Structures are given as C-alpha cells and as structure tokens.
Amino acid sequence: MKRKLGTQAADDAAKAKAEKMSKRGLDRREMVVQATLLALGPMLWSRRLLAGETASADRRFLIVMHGSGGASIVDSFMALASSEVQSAGGNSAGLNCYDPAQLVSFSDSPLRAVNYQGTIAVLGGLKVQGNQDAFVRKHKQDMMVVTTESTSVTHVTAQKRAITGNEAWSGRTIQEAVASVYGKGMPLANLLLGQGGYIEHGIDTSLPSFAKGLIVNDPATWSKGLSSAYGLDEAPSEEVMAIAREIRDQMLDGPSTFYRTFKNSPVMQNWVHSRGDTRALFEQSKLAAGLDISGTNGSAAELMRIFPDYTWDPYEAQAILACMAITQGTTCTATLGPGFTVVSKGGLTETRNPPIGFDFSHASHRGVQALMWTRMLSVTDRMIEFLKSKEYARGGSYWDRSLVYFATDFGRSRVRPSGADVFASGHHLNNGVLVMSPMANGNKVLGGIDPKTALTYGFDPATGKPEPGRKTEEKDLYSGLLQVLDVNTSAIHNAPDMRAMRRR
Amino acid sequence: MAHRKILSVGILGTALMLAGCSWFKKPKGNNAGGRGQKQTQSVTGALGDNGEPGLSNRSNIRFKKVYLLRNDFAKALQLPPNQLCKESGKDCLGSYNIVLGGVDPNMMLYSRIEQPVTTSPIAVERIALQACSRRVNLDFGGGKPLIFANIPASGSTFEQSHRDAVQRLYQNFLQRDPTDGDYAGHEKLLDSVGSMVSGQEIGKVWAQTACWMVATQLESVLY
User: Fold this and answer.
1) Is B118 within 8 Å of A278 when comparing Cβ atoms?
2) How far apart are CA A502 and CA A440, in angstroms?
3) B67: exposed, middle or buried (C-beta count within 10 Å: 0-12, 13-18, 19+)?
4) Alpha-carbon torsion A263, A266, A268, A272, what sign?
5) Residues of A in contact with B210 (CB under 8 A)
6) Got the DSSP string for A138-163?
7) What is the widest separation between alpha-carbon atoms in chain B?
8) Which domain holds residue A279?
9) What pLDDT does residue B114 have?
10) What is the DSSP letter of A109?
C-alpha cells in the first residue's frame, strides 16, 4: 500500500503499520485513499516529468529588479537638461535638471543617460562616478521607459502596489501571475530574494500553490536548506536516512496519538507532504547541490566569477542564485534588488549601498541616485550577459524570453534650492520605470516629460503616442508587463490593451 | 390541570433539546467522538472506549517558529542555542529564519508566516540532523554522556542502554515516555543500521538517527 521502499526493513515497517491499522479498525476508505495517493504521487510529480516539462515548455521569465526607496526616472533615462527647461520657460535653477555636461543624449534613441560625478558628504565624502551612458549604448534596443503615476508615497504600500498593479488582479502579484502561467512543474517557480513589499505574497486565494513565492533571506546559504543532509559531513548515508525516515513516518508518527488526533489539520497535512514528496523531489533533482553557491558547483563557479563580491554584497549573491535558478529550469520569476541596509567592504568611503537605498536621497539626492542606479545597472548588465550566453532548450537564449521590470516605490520631488548640485528630495507620485526585454517595445520612451515642471505624463496605450494630461496608472503598467510576457490578462477587470509596450 | 400540561410539555421539550444536542455530538466514524476526543487532550495519550484517540474537530495545529524550535532543541539536547547548527560557518538559524516563521527588519519583513512553506520541514530536518550529531559526538567523545550512555559501538542488539537512551530522547523532546511501538521502531532502526554500517560505527549512527527521528517527529515540531 505504500511506495516501494527497496528495503526489507522498510517493507516490514509498512507491513507492521498496516497490521496495526487493521487492528485498530482504521477507516478502510481512508486506507484506500491514502494508498491511491501514495501510488500516484510519484507519477503526478516525478523528476522525469519535471525535467521533460521544463525542457520543452514555452516559458517566459520575469525578473523584478526593485529599486527600493524611489529610483527616479528624471535622474536617469528621462533626465532634463537645464537648457531644455530654460527654453520651455521654466526655472532651471529651481528644478531638478542637469548641466548639459552631465547629461548624455543619443542620436538614435529617445533615452537619456546621466553621468553624474560628485561626492556624498554624509557618507564621509564618498566619491560617486555615475556612468549610465555605457549601459544605454549597450542595451538601448531592449530598453523601454514607461512613465507612471503611482498612488502611495509610503514605502511598503507603494512597493506592494508596484507588483500588484494596486490589486488589479484580485491582489495577485505580478510574480504570482507569471508563475501561475509558466511555473507549473517547477519546484521553486517564484523566488523572492529581495525585500519589503516587493516580496510580499498576494492575497488571491485562487492562486495555485506552486505559484506562491518562496522568500530567501540569505541567498548565499539558503539553497542548502533544500535538502535535509546535503553537504553535511556528519550526515549518515542516504540509505540510512531513508530507513530512519520510513520508520519515523510509519512506526513512530503514524500510530502516535498526536498524529491520529490532529491528522485532519491542514498544517499537519502540508507538513507531511512537504517532508515527504516535496523533499524527495528536491533531493532527487539535487536542487541543493545545483543551487549551491560554492566552487564545487560548476554553474555557480562561473557566476561567482561574474559576481565576485557575493560574499559581502547580498545583491550579488541574489543575482547568482537568480541566474542559476532560471537557467536550471527551477524558477520562472525571481525578485531581487539592493536593500535598505548598508553594504560596504570597508568604511564609509567604500559604501556600495547607502542606508535605506535610494531613499537616502533624502540626504543627498543626486549622489545617491547616481550611486544606486550605477549599482543596479551593473548587476543587471551582468545578469543579461549571462542569460544571453545560455541557450534555451527550444532555441534562442534565456534572455530572449526574459523581462526585467525595474520596480520602484515612487518618484522623487523635482524642486531644489536655487542652483544647488547637492540637495535633498522627498517622495513624489510622479515617475517612470525602466523595462528591459527583447519582447518589449525597445528603444522607446512611452509618454513624455513637461520641461517646465519635470513631471512625466502618459501615452496612448495602442500607439504609444505621448499624451499630456494622461497618466499611466499602476494597473496599466501591471497589465502591460503581463501582456509583454504573453500572460492572458482577461481576469483583470477593465484591463487595458497596452499594445504600445509590446515589440510585436 | 393546565399547569400540569404546561409542565409536561416543558419537560418533554427540554428532554428533546438535550437529546438533540447529544445527537449533534455523535461521532461520525470510528475515530471521531465525544468521549475519546476529550480523553486525548492528555499528553499521555489516554484512549477512548474503542481504544482510539478522538479526532480533533478543530485541528488547531501550529508549527514551532524559529525561536521556540531553537530553544526546545537546545533544551532537549542540552546544547547552547546558538550552536545547534552552522551553515558556511554561521548560525544556520539565520539562513532559515524566514521559512521557520521568523521576521527580518533588514528585509522590512515585520510579520511572520503562520503556515509552513514547502521548505520549512526540510530546514527543520537539517537543523535536527546537525544538532543531534553534535550531541552524539559529545556523548561518544569521552566526556560524561547526557543521553547516549554506554551504547555499544558495534553491537546491533537492542539492549537496556539503547532503551534508556530512547527513554531520555522522548522525555527531553516530547515530555513523555516512549510506547512499546516507539521502542520497536528504534529497535528496527538499530537492526537496519547494523546491516548497513560497518562495525564500529553502528552505535554512533544509530544514536544520530534515533535522535533525528524523535526530534523531527510531528509531535516534536508541531503543537
């Protein structure tokens, strides 16, 4: 009645349990149901089926790259030159616009780049060398900026709305929506490596369980927890562990008063399922070894060279884990990004991540924006290169099927003290986001910016034509991103067709 | 006369109501039932008339969150709470903090998961294996053993020393004595280990896995 165990001892244990069950007069129907489920279990979710499905599936991949604290679009790809503000009759000294020497425009692209150089005094005079232009030159064909108007300037609320489209799809996050379509058969379909509202679960109770995100708090070591014994020198052999597991399940837990009293509890049922079939699948698939960030793991070794600072910079460790999980057929959506905690190899002057990330713009706007954008673009560039180098089973590369959504909380205020280069900024609903994908309408800015106010405005969803006075709401962006990923958005009430965001 | 009629109707109505209540409480099958259910509240596992524990209708079970689990394991194995296990040289509970229901202000995660995720039981098994290995190494290391005393290194016969160790494991982890079935399970384990492990390792491997089995029993990790 149980799965084939392959050992006499385990068979005996199963037999003993069956006898005990019979003696106790256990419900026959329950025994039949359990036996059927146990017999069918491996067929329903076997490694072979998993591998086959993963290899042949026509999947898409979503990377949510979050800029916590407010990644400002007017300090990057929609930056204004002071001369533009003046020409429009605006007050360039009082508005956040850049000296033409710090701003790069391109003849073949509407995108801008800010190459800001300066220091952040409150970080011990940390020198900042922004160089967004190299990134734009390299990736502009896959870069699309979408202007936005969000609905909250409270961090976690705004973050959550950035991934739910302000509850557009019954509270389903964009990661969950993608995982529910492309994650079937994947053991860790939705990997949440980031922070805050970006890694919160949605509230759609109809979501398939496989699409629910798994939160990873320590990317450098987390994967070891996908096996109960992987990499432990003191662990007994797999055979001994299998016997111990079988005896525990059948001779200790099965007949125990505790189990028989509470066996209908969903928590207990989930626990038993997870430590049984799920763990077996993970261990048979060698997930812990495959996702282990160590030199003995071939794919990790390659990524450890690409992201050499993973030991002290968690963002780089996140990138390694995300790349491995996606290219090993384990995951179809990964969420990562710099956090709110300080990252530095040494003292203040070596700060790579200021406290509260982009939100440290409260103390020094331009320096922090330049520092954080450079940080995010550097990691993104390396991830894209890696994904481009990995061939997908159905042809093309993993990058051909991927989309990077630079989610952010909100924009930043546009005013500055007259002519100041170093100034503080506050939160602002108006902004824009960067989307990168070969499937997106690349080398485009959807919407526009008013040079008198430095505020962005929306666009026609069908043509992409800028429309002053129009706003791109959270739901519009959410729907458009899903449509780029070929996810059916008919479940979203009044979902707009954001044709302008799609390349084809 | 009318007074008597009213009294009769009242008594009859009350009787019917009480009977109705008891009907609602009637067990639907062998495992559900009022009397048995009440008796299973006891940690000693007292049984109902039919020898079966009652099936809880509320089934209000939770999993032990990170600090509760850590403290219970540390107390059961008499180890420092921060030395139960290591991952890459660090306290492993940090690696599994979130999946074990912890919070992390650095991640802006201020509310914990109430339901275990798929990796929660696996993380618990991993922690238990490391913690048990530490206890076994200490007990077999020449000092005064706390749980595994006088366990033969190579024998695969279930002796009194094995029974004593099993008894201590159950008392430490589950606060109860083992049942005959529990002893049988551990004896079966020793028999299996004896046929799979080379001579001098039998006692140690048995101790390690016996400890792991009890530490990861449902009764140990859920409450």
Assistant:
1) yes
2) 5
3) middle
4) positive
5) 244
6) HHGGGEEEEEEE-S--SHHHHHHHHH
7) 92
8) 8-44+227-284
9) 86
10) E
State which residue of chain B sits closest to A258, comparing Cα positions. Answer: B219
Do A158 and A257 lie in a common domain?
no
Distances (CA, A) of A490 to A336, B69, B96, B179: 28, 45, 38, 57
Whether residue A335 is found in the same domain as residue A365: yes
C-alpha A146/C-alpha B42 separation (Å) is 62
In the Cβ-directed half-sphere of A142, how many Cα atoms lie within 13 Å?
Answer: 19
Give me the residues of chain B with pLDDT under 70, please: 1-51
Q: Residue type at A333?
A: T
Q: Does B99 touch chain A (CB under 8 A)?
A: yes
- Give the phi and the psi of residue A191 in degrees, each rounded to 5: -100, 120
**Residue in B8, B129, B115 with CA at minimum distance from that of residue B73:** B129
Residue A95 is given by DSSP the state B
CB A187 within 8 A of CB B122: no
| Same domain flag for A316 and A445 | yes
Query: Which of B30, B54, B107 minimises the CB distance to A25?
Result: B30
- The model's pLDDT over A121-149, given as tens digits with 9 standing for 90+, comes to 999 999 999 999 999 999 999 999 999 99
CA B13 to chain A, closest CA, distance in angstroms equals 35
Q: Does A259 touch chain B (CB under 8 A)?
A: yes
Bridge partners, A106 (sequence order): A109
Rounded Cα–Cα distance for residues A63 and A70 (Å): 18
Instruction: Provide the CA A400 distance to its chain's centre, in angstroms.
Output: 17
Cα separation values, B20 from A72, A231, B15, B33, B34, Å? 68, 60, 8, 16, 14
Any CB–CB contact under 8 A between A56 and chain B?
no
SS3 A113: strand
In chain A, what residues touch B56 (CB-CB under 8 Å)? 261-262, 264-265
Task: Verify whether the Cβ–Cβ distance B121 to A271 is below 8 Å.
Answer: yes
Which domain CATH number covers A58? 3.40.720
Question: CA-to-CA distance for B99 and B112, rounded, in angstroms?
Answer: 9
Q: How many domains does chain A have?
A: 2
CA distance A9 to chain B (A): 7
Domain annotation covers residue A2: no
The SS3 of residue A321 is: helix
**Domain extent listing, chain B:** 1-60, 66-221
pLDDT band at A55 (very low <50, low <70, confident <90, very high): very low
Contact A48, A36 (CB under 8 A): no
pLDDT in tens, A206-254: 999 999 999 999 998 899 999 999 999 999 999 999 999 999 999 999 9
ipTM attached to this prediction: 0.81
Helix (H, G, I), strand (E, B), or coil: what is residue A384? helix
Q: Residue B176, Cβ neighbours under 10 Å: how many?
A: 16
A270 lies in the same domain as A302: no
Q: Are residues A208 and A357 in the same domain?
A: yes
| End-of-domain residue from the set A284, A301, A331 | A284
B185: nearest Cα among A259, A260, A239, A14: A14
CA B211 to chain centre: 12
Structural domain contains residue A273: yes
Residue A6, pLDDT above cutoff 50:
no
The whole-angstrom separation of Cα A455 and Cα A414 is 8
pLDDT at A336 over 60: yes
Same domain, A151 and A238: no
Q: What is the pLDDT of residues A388-421, one digit of tens each?
A: 999 999 999 999 999 999 999 999 999 999 999 9
Residues A195 and A273 placed together within one structural domain of the fold: no
